[in-house]
């Protein structure tokens, strides 16, 4: 038996589509005795979208773009106008879908353009973001080192060395020296032990007479195997 609200046996008739549906399929409405509105959720959403489009047209004089139907597991990229699988989009935890708005090629293009516009290029962006210095500070620091690696003295080093604990930039190093310090965890103790180790396991050239040198065997280690 139905009542004045069009309800019967836990169901309600939607005023738009005219279908009888369970009350759970209607939008919540605290003003109604049943706690549910007059329109089912699909019809309510359609009404909301139509109302929004009407307000936009009246207030801003433009049309709202219709929602594009996309197959499950796919996404539409507004830049290239293509529908692609979700794996072709970068991850983005801020989006409800978990993926970015633009596909990977378009996303990369936009990122490059932004870095170029704001920083003048990828190199400046990288230096500013990671080390807090720009190319000008990099060049000044390298000039103070005479254009050489601050550790080994090789020319044209390209890597910024910084204290991993404080973040302060220490100098400009070549690839090998920068990686070496990182492998030794920036520890003077470890480096000192490595120097002691090398001195005790490496043949030394000792001056025994002016212009005459003798190779002395290391105090530690074993001779190479005869089978090597």
TrEMBL record:
InterPro entries from the entry? Endonuclease_7, Endonuclease_7_sf, His-Me_finger_sf
- Please give the superkingdom of this protein's source: Bacteria
Q: What is this protein called?
A: Recombinase
Lineage start: Bacteria, Bacillati, Actinomycetota, Actinomycetes, Micromonosporales
Kindly give the Gene3D superfamilies that the UniProt entry links to this protein. His-Me finger endonucleases (3.40.1800.10)
Protein's organism: Verrucosispora sioxanthis
| Any Pfam family the entry gives | Endonuclease_7
């Amino acid at each position: 038996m139905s009542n004045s609200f069009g309800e019967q046996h836990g169901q309600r008739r939607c005023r738009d589509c005219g279908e009888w549906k369970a009350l759970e399929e209607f939008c919540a409405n605290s003003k109604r005795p049943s706690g549910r509105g007059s329109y089912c959720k699909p019809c309510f959403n359609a009404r909301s979208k139509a109302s929004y489009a009407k307000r936009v047209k009246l207030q801003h004089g433009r049309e709202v773009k219709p929602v594009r139907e996309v197959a499950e597991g796919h996404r539409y990229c507004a830049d290239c106008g293509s529908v692609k699988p979700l794996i072709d989009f970068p991850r983005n935890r801020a989006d409800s879908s978990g993926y970015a708005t633009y596909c990977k090629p378009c996303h990369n293009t936009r990122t490059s353009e932004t870095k170029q516009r704001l920083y003048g290029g990828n190199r400046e962006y990288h230096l500013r973001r990671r080390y807090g210095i720009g190319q000008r500070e990099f060049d000044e620091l390298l000039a103070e080192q005479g254009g050489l690696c601050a550790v080994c003295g090789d020319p044209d080093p390209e890597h910024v060395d910084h204290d991993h604990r404080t973040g302060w930039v220490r100098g400009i190093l070549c690839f090998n020296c920068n990686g070496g310090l990182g492998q030794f965890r920036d520890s003077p103790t470890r480096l000192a032990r490595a120097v002691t180790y090398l001195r005790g396991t490496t043949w030394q050239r000792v001056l025994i007479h002016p212009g005459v040198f003798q190779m002395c065997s290391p105090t530690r280690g074993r001779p190479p195997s005869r089978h090597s």
